[in-house]
Amino acid sequence: MNRQEQETLLHRISKRLMLNSDFTDDLGLEHGKSGVIIFFYNYFRFTGLSVYEDFADELLDEMQNCIKNCNSDFRKSICGIGLCFEYLIHNRFIEAENEVMEELDTYITKRVDIKNKGMDNGLTGAVYYAISRSFADNCSLEKEFIANLHKQLFGLQENDPEINFLKEQLSRIMINSKTFEYPDLLHILLKNVTCTEHSLYGLPVYSLENGLTGTGLKIIRDITNNG
């Protein structure tokens, strides 16, 4: 696709995401509203049109209300939501709110299921969150929690490049090394996304891996990186 075709596709994706954002209760990163929020903040920066920032702000306010009210949907996607906030703060889309981030630290410490590998409420998401939060002055994750993540991660026997990266970064945090890397969340989540299809109607709406959200973010990244 040339740039004009990419931008036309992006506009169509934004319209469908706006129309469909109320039709999911999933607040997670991989298949829910966290990914949509990240898309619209990026699309605002890409276009300069405040309507997209306003829409992202509305979705983010909804998510914050879920956190304050301990909404069950929030608890099911705790790591994905935490990573969403970390991404937005790190990339200067929003200002850091210490109270919100400390609440997320507490919820993730108590509620994440590190016996599964999922991104939204499992070991992988918790480790990415712990690495990201370790850069923040107000990180309140307990050392015992990070040690448990470290133990669980090193219990995995598979030789996977992503898992090996996480093991290395978490090990550096455990010894208080300052050489660990801030993870590029979108690169991780979009690495398998392709943008060759002009038709959007067969794609899941919210998925980062194979849906509209991921396709839109991948196009923005490709255009931005290629100038």
Explained architecture:
By secondary structure, this protein is mainly alpha-helical. The protein is 63% helix and 0% strand. Helix 2 packs parallel to helix 5 (78-90). The longest helix has 19 residues, at 50-68. It is built from 11 helices and no strands.
Task: Write the SSE topology.
Layout: H1 3-20, H2 33-47, H3 50-68, H4 72-76, H5 78-90, H6 98-111, H7 123-133, H8 143-154, H9 161-174, H10 185-190, H11 212-226
Helix pairs in contact: 1-11, 2-3, 2-5, 2-11, 5-6, 5-7, 7-8, 7-9, 8-9
**Rounded mean pLDDT score:** 88
Q: Kindly, what is the distance between the CA atoms of the first and last residues, rounded to a whole number of angstroms?
A: 15 Å
Order of helices and strands: HHHHHHHHHHH
Give the biggest beta sheet.
none
Stretches with pLDDT under 50, minimum 5 residues: none
Tell me the radius of gyration. Answer: 17 Å
Beta-strand content bin: under 5%
Secondary-structure content class: mainly alpha
Strand segment count: 0
Shape: globular
So how many helices? 11
- Helical coverage, percent range: 55-70%
